[in-house]
Amino acid sequence: MNASADLLKELRIDRKSAPPPPTSRRGLWIAIAVVAALLLLAGAGWAFFGRDKGVEVRTATTVAIGSGGSSASVLDATGYVVARRIATVSAKITGRVREVLIEEGQRVEEGQVMATLDPIDADAERSLANAQLSAAHSGVEQMRAQLIEAEANARRLSSLVRQQLVSKSQYDQAIAQRDSLRAQLLTAERNAKVASGRLRIADIGVDNTVVRAPFAGVVTAKAAQPGEIVSPLSAGGGFTRTGIGTIVDMDSLEVEVDVGEAYIGRVQPKMPVEATLNAYPDWKIPAEVIAIIPAADRGKATVKVRIAIKQKDPRIVPDMGVKVSFLESAKPAAAQQPQGVRVASAAIAQRDGKDVAFVVNDKGDAVEQAEVKLGRAMGDDRQVVSGLSPGETVVLDPPPAMKDGDKIRLKKDEEAQ
To answer: Which of 46, 173, 179, 319 is 20 to 30 A from 242, alpha carbon to alpha carbon?
Structure first.
């Protein structure tokens, strides 16, 4: 009985004790926030990695050919900028360099001193020639004095011989002495002239120790330093220089290109040309054909063509690579008609047997397929008679699977431009 009573007491509810604390909801809210953050991250990841970014492409802009005087290219060629007037300046004599007064890139005028040589030997030669000239002049003066005395003696004896106061032989001897002194004076005067000429030659020798610019231009190379031996002739060794420096007349620059024999018939003298330097691909330089050299290169099967550059600019320097486009001669204004646009050949594709191009929309994120009508080839470009407008952006080398409305994105190098 006592055990049953104890069990019943344990089952009795103690209403006097405090109720248990309610369960906290803080953990529930933390769990909800974590789930929401994960959902947001998943959505952002899908938006960044899952969406279609489009095909990465390169683009180009169409250029109007129009009737404003532009001419189509009939032939493209490559060559180099050359100078028609270029000189490696050297001394006329062999000597040791005392001073060099030029540097690369310096502009010099005609006659400007570029360098000087050691003048010791030339100065000694000049001093000797000057002394010889002075001696010759002294000899002339001596002969003149003796001749004056002899002429006076001959006149005096002439009067005495008429009076028969002296013998005829004395008079003849005085005449002979006078004539001899006249001949000696003539010889002395000629010797003085020779000495004077020798002095002028010595002066030239001194002047040859000064090296001057033969024409106005720009120094492109400095070949000698003070203390070196220079000579107009090569000594066959490494201790003798043959030049002081190289000067280029920048006003004589022109372009020389090699044109294949099969296409030389398209080139004519005075033909307009558009030149593009490899260093400045966006700079179109007007030019003109000077002459077609009447000789072919058997090994390369090419003919050399000289082209005059009409625009002078310090950016154009010798040996630069250049690409030239030989243009059609300008037609009369009344006969010129709009000729469509010029576009890179890589922008033309084939779809269902038709020539098409893919034009980038205004937003720059999609393309529109445009059927085009092609004209003549213009070097690396192509004439498009219809289907494209000037200033439109087209895709270069479109993938075979590209179609109207496809998404695209520009390459990073083009986006940066």
So the answer is: 319
CATH of the domain at 382: 2.40.420.20
Q: State pTM to two decimals.
A: 0.53
CA nearest 384: which of 358, 328, 345, 413?
Answer: 345
DSSP per-residue codes, 272-310:
EEEEEETT-TT-EEEEEEEEEEEEEETTTTEEEEEEEES
The residue from 327, 344, 362 where one domain ends is 327
Three-state DSSP class for residue 104:
coil
Same domain? 182 vs 315: no
Task: Write out the two tokens for 390.
Answer: 């000037």
CATH number at 234 reads 2.40.50.100
Task: Give the residue numbers spanning the domain of 351.
Answer: 55-70+336-416
